[in-house]
Amino acid sequence: MGKSKKPRAGHRSDPVAKTVKPPSDPELAALRESKILPIINNLKSADPKSRSTAASVISSIIQDTKCRKLLLREQIVYTVLTQTLTDAALESRAAGWGILQVLAQEEEADFCVHLYRQDVLTAIEFASKLIQDKVLSKEAPFAKLPKAEKGFTSSIAASLVSLLMALAEAEDEILESISNNNTITSLLFSLITYTSQDDEDPISAIRGDAMACLMVLSEDNTNLAKYMTSTPASIACYETLVSLKDDVSGDGVLACTVLHNIYASLLEVKNLSPTIDVADDADLIPTLTKAMAGFVPGQGEANGSGWSSPSEFQQLALETIASIGTSLGVEMGGSAQLFTKKEFGSGAAAAGKESGDENDDEDMDEAGDDVGDDIEGEDGDEDEGDDDDDMNEDEIEADMDMVTGVDHGDDNIDDLPTLKSLVQIAIPELIRLASLQPTDDLSLKIQGHALSALNNIAWSVSLIDFSEDSNNDVLGAWTPIARALWQQVVSPILASDTADVDLATQVTSIAWAVARALHGETPLQPNEHRKFVSLYQATKGAPALQDPEDPFQALGVKCVGVLGQLALNPAPVDLNREIGTFLVTLVAGLPGTPTADAVEAFNQLFDIYGDEEYAYDAEVFWKSDFLKHLDGTVSKAKAMAKSVNKSQQPELRDRADEVVMNLTRFLSYKKKHKPMQMTVRERS
Questions:
Q1: What is the pLDDT of residue 5?
Q2: What CA–CA distance (Å, rounded) separates 355 from 363?
Q3: What is the pLDDT of residue 452?
Q4: How far is the C-alpha of 555 from the C-alpha of 561, rounded, in Å?
Q5: For residue 86, what is the DSSP state?
Q6: Quick check: 287 and 246 in contact, CB under 8 A?
Q7: 3-state secondary structure at position 609
């Protein structure tokens, strides 16, 4: 019988106790011997004064890259976490937190993940309670503490806030852990609600950073939003934010942003019972607009520091307006994500699935079988075949309505205070900023933020169904704004033939949204549509700069989208013919056409030629023989869909599958609705 092995756990060496090899670089080796090792030894000294001095020295040299890397090699993080932060001397603890805060700022995000795994939140929780006890103490008011103690306390508080922000931005799991820790969030609430007790109170200077940290924590955070609006311990903080929202300053804009995050997080929450009135976005737009209106080209970025700098809070104001523009879709009852997708896609998919249990035309049945066999079968996802009964004319038309139609809410402009405030207050200023001729980096950033805000607002508005009479007031308010957007922003940038792909992408996206709402009233300049064709051809196949993983955000897709909207009824026949030919050429060019571009082109063609009552249907679709060309794309479209890896690009695959399904239905519909003269000509 073999000998049992002895447990080895007790003999394992402490990885931290391992001797650190000196760096091979002579300069770094000399720096380590002369400066780093003596400081590390003093930090571990039994003498309290030596430890405090060493911690202070490290906090002063940690920003130097060479010193920082050497200190990390010497396990400085382990020493600080296990010894410095538990030191009896407040000065040492302040220096220790300062060291971690600088490391979190200077190192990559994985350093913060490492700190989190070392249970740094427990240490932060302990320190947070200490700070609150000192700052909120009734027995020993903070203002009466010795100056040195106040300085060290405020230093720890500032380091904690900065460290918390870095941790929250590093990983969603960390953010959730922080926001769910009542002791830590209570520290932020206390720093925000704190009232200065004298002219040189160091704690009051931290409020802006505390609000910035809360801003990061509160984004898309329903639990924190509920907590802040319904829990007595946090309501004081919320009320402080409300009291600051009218200030045109860094603190005022930060307060507006946090309030917006809370409001946006609660928009879709049912059975909500806040114990206070929740400020909505319409309350915030005036302050945000005043803040961004203060921008003057050439003002520079070095005016003020931190959140007191106008350039900082002006950009934040624009970012918040952009976020309000996105959440506007949710507020109006739509989906904030719809502006990245073709809206009939989900409806078309539903139509395809539901129609399997209804009576189908023989042609539609055959097409459905082809889709099932050729596309879904390859992935092992088989659906039941369609019934063989015929569909009547009404059912076929209803089917086409599902392919090309969309249903939106019918809200009135007076029932949409946020939209009304955006239209009347914010958008005119956004148009001014978007029309800038940037001369420096700051102007370029401001223009980019303004374009993003206009884009989000325009897309949210474009989701409204303006065919409903109840939305006439909204359309009446939006039309002059949308026309101004095109004339003052879209046309000038298109005319400049910009080589900036990012700028061209933003402007094309705005143009698409405007055209969706205005259709025939889009103030298109002569031959202006050809600018989008040229943009497409110049950038064909290029990925989206802002979101390269999403092919539908690419400039090419946006060019196809805006062209399709410009070709819709009541577009002139010549314009429709030129754009229709371009779109048909794109889909006929498969597999040479990028999949996302082809998907969007197919969808636009379905919308443009989905109704035979349009004047251009006979003049363009039939006389240009589009049916023959589209018939020839069926096999190409199926191959296109099959070529997309479903696990790697699920959205692209789903939408490609939908296009194939809709294409067969569209062609079947068109064949049954040939103009009379075409049918007579064929028979003769």
A1: 46
A2: 14
A3: 98
A4: 10
A5: G
A6: yes
A7: coil
Residue labelled with tokens 């830590």: 184
Count of residues in the chain: 684
The 10s digit of each residue's pLDDT in 398-443 is 544 544 433 333 346 788 899 999 999 999 999 999 999 998 999 9
Report d(CA 502, CA 482) in Å as an integer: 21
Which secondary structure element, helix H or strand E, spans residue 178, and what is its range? helix 172-179
CA distances from 643 to 260, 367, 636, 654 (A): 42, 20, 10, 12
* Per-residue pLDDT tens digits for 558-572: 999 999 999 999 999
Residue whose token pair is 């079968």: 377
pLDDT in tens, 383-399: 444 444 445 555 545 54
Question: Which two structure tokens, joined as six digits, stand for 51?
Answer: 């430890």
User: What gap in Å lies between CA 673 and CA 679, rounded to an integer?
Assistant: 9
Measured between alpha carbons, how far is 57 from 35 in angstroms, rounded to an integer?
10
Residue 624, SS3? coil
Q: What is the mean pLDDT of residues 328-332?
A: 85
Question: Are 459 and 324 spatial neighbours (Cβ–Cβ below 8 Å)?
Answer: no
Question: CB-based contacts of 238: which residues, under 8 Å, 6+ apart?
Answer: 228, 229, 262, 276
Cα–Cα distance measured from residue 242 to residue 262, given in angstroms and rounded to the nearest whole number: 12
Instruction: List alpha helices for 294-440, DSSP H.
Output: 310-331, 344-354, 362-374, 393-404, 417-421, 427-434
Cα separation, 225 vs 487, whole angstroms: 40
Cβ atoms < 10 Å from Cβ of 578: 19
Give dist(CA 283, CA 252) in Å, integer.
Answer: 12
| CA–centroid distance for 540 within its chain | 25
Helices 310-331, 427-434: inter-axial angle, 10-degree rounding: 120
- Confidence label for 339 from pLDDT (cuts 50, 70 and 90): very low
Q: Which two tokens stand for residue 100?
A: 């971690």
Do residues 228 and 271 make contact, with C-beta atoms less than 8 angstroms apart?
no
Which stretches of 435-569 are DSSP H helices?
A: 441-462, 472-485, 491-495, 501-518, 529-539, 555-566
Q: Tell me, yes or no, if the pTM score tops 0.90.
A: no
One DSSP character per residue, 553-599 reads GSHHHHHHHHHHHHTSTT--HHHHHHHHHHHHHHHHTTTSS-HHHHH
Report the C-alpha gap between 293 and 295 in whole angstroms.
5
Alpha helices by DSSP H, 355-434: 362-374, 393-404, 417-421, 427-434
* Structure token digits, residue 524: 């298109």
Give the number of other CB atoms < 10 A from CB of residue 432.
15
Going from the C-alpha of 13 to that of each of 5, 18, 22, 205, the distances in angstroms are 18, 8, 20, 46
Q: Is 463 helix (H, G, I), strand (E, B) or coil?
A: coil
* 217 Cβ neighbours under 8 A, 6+ residues apart: 168, 175, 178, 179, 185, 188, 224
State which amino acid sits at residue 554: A
Q: Which tokens go with 575?
A: 């314009």
Torsion from C-alpha of 564, 568, 573, 574, nearest 10 degrees = -30
Quick one: tokens of 147?
A: 């100056």
Beta-carbon contacts of residue 346 (< 8 Å; ≥ 6 apart): none
Structure tokens at 581: 């030919």
- Structural contact between residues 631 and 667, judged by C-beta atoms closer than 8 angstroms: yes
Please choose, from the candidates 278, 252, 255, the residue with its C-alpha nearest in 3D space to the C-alpha of residue 266. 278
b/e for 10-24, b at 16 or more Cβ within 10 A? eeeeeeeeeeeeebe
